[in-house]
């Protein structure tokens, strides 16, 4: 799903008010618009990189109109606005003009709401994902994508991020309905909460820098050394600034981080060996069973490892496989 906002290439129609982490908007003029259904996984990108994934939890539609700008000579809507050249516009047929002809057309507007399922992705170049589109067409904003067609680390990382989106199940109002609630002043002062959240975000950034230095920009499970794919993982789940201690952290490739957070991968404290949940049997992750973390025991908190190991082995069906 192409999400460009105001940076769209063509100026023949008004853009869609995409709110990247919340909703994807489109209309009946968009090819493949009827192929999107509730429950579908959406991979969102801009012109260069994958931005993230989300589940189309709720799709709402309503009839309306759309403003189209056309070339005054040939009436095509494929026109570009030029910044440094006059006349300002040029259509795909080569006609140049200063002002397009504006028309209103009836259409159906759609909004695919994510309901909290959006998950940002590491910066994966679009070129590395195109191979997964069975019928790729550079002119289309919506295209079918088959994750199994990806290969290498890109496949593992994108599948890991996608798993987070599809695993999330939230209960709440659709964002379009939330605005209908009346505003009632309650005297609450949220400034301290906001300040705390800012400190936490800064702490998380410092935590990742510490781990990148500590583990030499290398995933301690896979050996991946691509910084854009590496994430700071907490051994003992993050509950506050105290948990951002470097000995409570591991540098993991994004998909491995996801599996660790889902307790599908466990670390045996005494040996630092990796254990794989039975749910991953037969998958490419089974190869990591028995692999030892590429770090020294002294770099990690033994108490944090013990607590996390107890959580892993107590998970339904986990055992110590």
Word description of this protein:
With about 325 residues, this protein is α+β, with helices and mostly antiparallel strands. It is about 20% helix and about 20% strand. The protein has two domains: about 5-165, no CATH class; about 195-315, no CATH class. The chain has helices at about 150-165, 175-180, 190-215, 255-260, 300-315, and strands spanning about 25, 40-45, 50-55, 60-70, 80, 90, 95, 100-115, 120, 230-235, 250-255, 265-270, 275. A hairpin with a 4-residue loop joins strand 6 (about 90) and strand 7. Helix 1 packs parallel to helix 4 (about 255-260). The longest helix is centred in the middle third of the chain and has 24 residues, at about 190-215. It starts with about 20 loop residues before the first strand and ends in an 8-residue tail after the last helix.
Features:
single chain; 321 residues; alpha+beta; three-stranded antiparallel beta sheet; 20% helix
Q: Which of globular, elongated, flat, extended, rod-shaped describes the shape?
A: elongated
Strand content: 15-25%
Strand order of the largest sheet: 1-8-4
Q: Considering DSSP H and I runs of 4 or more, what fraction of the residues is helical?
A: 10-25%
What's a quick, concise take on this entry?
20% of the residues lie in helices and 22% in strands. With 321 residues, it is of the alpha+beta class. It has a 3-stranded antiparallel beta sheet with strand order 1-8-4, with no helix packed on it. A 3-stranded antiparallel beta sheet has the order 2-3-9, with helices on one face. It has a 3-stranded antiparallel beta sheet with strand order 5-6-7, with no helix packed on it.
């Amino acid at each position: 799903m192409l999400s460009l906002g105001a940076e769209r290439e063509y100026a023949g129609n008004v853009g869609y008010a995409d709110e990247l982490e919340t909703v994807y908007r489109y209309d009946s003029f968009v090819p493949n618009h009827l192929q999107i259904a509730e429950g579908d996984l959406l991979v969102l990108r801009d012109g260069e990189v994958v931005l993230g994934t989300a589940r189309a939890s709720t799709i709402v539609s309503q009839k309306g109109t759309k403003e189209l700008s056309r070339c005054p000579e040939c009436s095509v809507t494929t026109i570009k606005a030029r910044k440094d050249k006059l006349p300002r516009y040029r259509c795909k047929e080569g006609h140049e003009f200063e002002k397009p002809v504006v028309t209103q057309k009836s259409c159906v507007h759609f909004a695919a709401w994510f309901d909290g399922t959006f998950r940002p992705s590491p910066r994966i170049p679009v070129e590395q994902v195109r191979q997964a589109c069975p019928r790729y067409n550079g002119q289309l904003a919506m295209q079918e994508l088959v994750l199994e067609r990806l290969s290498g680390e890109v496949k593992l990382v994108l599948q890991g991020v996608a798993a987070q989106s599809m695993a999330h199940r939230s209960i709440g109002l659709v964002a379009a309905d939330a605005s209908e609630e009346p505003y009632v002043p309650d005297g609450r002062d949220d400034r301290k909460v906001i300040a705390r959240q800012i400190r936490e975000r800064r702490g998380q950034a410092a935590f990742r820098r510490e781990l990148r230095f500590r583990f030499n920009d290398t995933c301690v499970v896979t050996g991946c050394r691509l910084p854009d794919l590496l994430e700071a993982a907490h051994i003992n789940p993050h509950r506050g600034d105290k948990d951002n201690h470097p000995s409570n952290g591991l540098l993991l490739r994004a998909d491995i981080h996801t599996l660790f957070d889902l307790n599908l991968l466990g670390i045996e404290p005494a040996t630092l060996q990796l254990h794989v949940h039975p749910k991953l049997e037969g998958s490419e992750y089974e190869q990591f069973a028995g692999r030892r973390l590429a770090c020294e025991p002294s770099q990690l908190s033994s108490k944090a490892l013990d607590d996390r190991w107890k959580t892993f082995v107590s998970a339904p069906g986990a055992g110590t496989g």
